[in-house]
Amino acid sequence: MTRSLAIAACLVLAVAPHAARANPVDAFGYGARSVSLSGAVTATATDDSANYYNPAGLAVSDDLRIELGYIYVDPTLKMNGGDQDVDRNYGVQGGVVLPGQIARHNVAFSLGLFLPAERISRIRALPLRQPRWVLFDNRPQRLVITTSLALEVIDDLYVGAGLTYLSNTGGTLAMGGVANLFDEEQTAFFSGVDVNLSAVRYPSAGIMFTPGDWSFGLAFRDEFELGLDLTVDVGGDIAGTQGVAVEDASFILVTTSTNLFSPRQLALGAAYSPGRWSAAVDLTWAQWSHFPSEASAIDIDLEFGSLPFELPPTDDPVSPQFRNIVITRVGGEYVAVDSKHFGLTLRGGYSFEPTPADDVPAPLSYIDSAKHGASLGLGFRFSEFSTVFERPVLLDLAGSYTRMTPRTYLTDDAASAVGDLETEGHFLGFVSTLSLLFP
To answer: CA-CA distance, 64 to 243, in Å (whole number)?
Structure first.
């Protein structure tokens, strides 16, 4: 019954829940300077990272910027002392900022990219009751592309908007042939798999105001869901001892589920830069209450002639009951060296993100906890060292550490195969960004 087992395996994959997470930029940041400030850049991001943090900042500078960077984040997430082997996040970050002017006011267009090193998309199915780090498991495996346009409305006031594209997954498994109920050797099926990656986009927008030593920013990022649409289409004849019992039998299963989710966010930031130093603070509201159920929506069509066959009903989806949260970020910079040919800036930041998964109802077993993040960074400026580069060349480096606070989960189910859980974890990250500026 090898063929039957193959069909059963496909059905298990189709109806199993798929972990739903936010995108890798939400989780780990974008650009070395922004990461070194723990993301407190809603009021100050003017480089390629403004595509994510606040697109209005792209119009602040009138330099053409080409940026290329690398990010590496290594997670250690444990349950009852055992590492859960959550994927590393590493790949290329980069983009270009193209400036211009309209009626003596700056405009800018930008394209940003995160390209993971191993996969541009990944699907991972887990049993409904299996504990998982729901906000981080499989989170990095996404190709992210962002385009933005920014405009200086009046002096010191900038607006911008953008679209972010992520890869979506869908596929069909088609099988056809003859199934013999009593003789496996007489069973023959031919199969084909068709998988496609399509783009899902969500908008973002921002405002930045930079009067004197102060700067203020307000940014909006809409929510989005990446669906996982799978179809299993099995057709053919069913044979018995007396020949063909059912002609043109068919089994069609269509399942739709959420493979990735990012919450709607509203970020408010302020920064003060009186001279060689600056300080910034951000507050970000994240609407995690819209986090969807992982259970699949299933539609089954059976045509087995007169054979008695009935499928059991599927369980109703269980809402995760996540709550909205406010994330706090602070960061600071100090220009330690500012000579004609060389500059050095020291940076640091801290963030606190409460967990949206406080009271997740059974049978769901979503693991998450509050996150404390600390970061340090260095910014190097090299000026007038080559006739090729009239503008400074910038190299930014950042290191980050995120600690998941230990948490205990007590089960009320005496038949649970997992039992009580003790969880803890941390992330270590490194980001580098090289920026080339042209007049």
So the answer is: 74
